[in-house]
Write a structure and sequence with these properties.
Strands 3, 5, 6, 9, 10, 17 and 18 form a seven-stranded mixed sheet that branches. The chain starts with a strand and ends with a strand. Strand 15, helix 8 (267-272) and strand 16 form a beta-alpha-beta unit. The chain has helices spanning 38-45, 92-95, 135-154, 169-180, 192-201, 214-221, 237-243, 267-272, 285-296, 314-317, and strands at residues 2-8, 11-16, 26-36, 55-56, 60-67, 79-82, 85-86, 106-107, 119-123, 127-129, 161-165, 184-189, 206-209, 227-232, 247-255, 276-279, 305-310, 330-334. The protein contains ten helices and 18 strands.
Length: 336
């Protein structure tokens, strides 16, 4: 089968590997779609803190069942999405129901080789039936689940003022579920095209362009109170630090993005506002189910997918997705 390796930052190669055999308790999936996310771009540019090279990328996955264990709820030909956070089920976090931060987690495409391949064998508890969805929709479930998890962490409620810093795919995923929860959402980003998309396609109430006067604009939107909930989805340490100042008194700050550096904040301001600081990592089965229901209800636009390429073309075309001028929101790799 064809597999795409990131041999080192900036270098991708196509290699032929044996088709995997289905392990005991596993489902053999014929991969059909692979979404490209910020993690993949960070791997390609050498900016991912939890990875060693070479690595097969790919964790936003959909496909069809090739083989399933006897007695499984899955059947050959079923359209599925894959939960890529392979948790142990026995550590303290898993026992508490927090499999998303399992102490022994092995994320496909990060800690272990992922799904930029033609076939992948995965433990059956991480393969979810996606009946009623297209292959494109099923491949978007994972990144949307990250947004759904972050919104659930923050307990966003109706009419709360919500700020999302960063209008990339993860920020957009947060916006989808914050809006569905009834939040009044503001997005801030440097890219006007992405901000316009959020307002026109995702139901965002306010958009603010990053730059001179942006803080005054955010203040005006909230009558000087700033926001009940702020989400950072930038992956930029300076932006993450600045975001503390946008949290209103008694508000919450959720760090969805991750950077390989320390983050600092002003302690008197933090205490004065009694800020709640939350990390949000990955997603759980419950979040995947939330997303699948939202997709079936038509609450997630497929127009998030803006660029496509074939699996065989990834080594030559992947770098195009890193160009801001290309207008990429979500790149999708298609496997014939």
């Amino acid at each position: 089968m064809l597999a795409i390796f990131c041999d080192k930052p900036g270098l991708l190669s196509a290699k032929e590997l044996p088709k995997p055999h289905r392990g005991e308790g596993e489902v053999l999936v014929r991969i059909r779609r692979i979404g490209v996310c910020g993690t993949d771009l960070h791997i390609f540019t050498g900016n991912q803190p939890y990875l060693s090279y070479p690595r097969i990328m790919g964790h936003e996955l959909s496909g069809t069942v090739e083989e399933a264990p006897q007695g499984s709820a899955l059947s050959s030909g079923d359209v599925v999405t894959i939960m890529p956070y392979i948790s142990c089920g026995t550590c303290s976090a898993c026992i508490k129901g927090k499999s998303n931060c399992c102490r022994n987690i092995g994320v496909l495409g990060v800690h272990r080789d992922g799904g930029m391949v033609e076939y992948l064998s995965v433990p059956q508890q991480f393969v979810l039936k996606a009946e009623g969805l297209s292959l494109d929709q099923a491949a978007m479930t994972e990144f949307l689940a990250i947004g759904a998890h972050a919104v659930r962490r923050a307990s966003v409620e109706k009419d709360q003022s919500v700020l999302i810093v960063g209008a990339g795919p993860i920020g957009m995923a947060v916006a989808v579920f914050a809006v569905l929860n009834g939040g009044v959402v503001t997005m801030i980003d440097s890219r006007s095209d992405r901000l316009d998309f959020c307002k026109e396609q995702l139901g965002v109430a306010h958009i603010v362009q990053l730059g001179d006067g942006d803080r005054d604009a955010l203040s005006d939107i909230t009558d000087g109170d700033f926001f009940d909930v702020v989400f950072d989805a930038t992956g930029n340490p300076k932006a993450m630090e600045r975001g503390f100042s946008f949290v209103g008194h008694g508000g919450s700050y959720v760090l969805v993005s991750i950077v390989a550096s320390d983050i600092t904040f002003n302690d008197p301001e933090f205490h004065k506002r009694e800020t709640t600081l939350l990390g949000s990592r990955n997603a759980t089965i419950e979040d995947f189910q939330t997303v699948l229901a939202a997709q079936r209800a038509g609450n997630v636009p497929e127009s998030l997918i803006t660029h496509r390429m074939a699996l065989a073309d990834v080594p030559s075309r992947f770098a195009d997705l890193t160009n801001p001028k290309a207008g990429v929101i979500k790149g999708m790799v298609e496997v014939a």
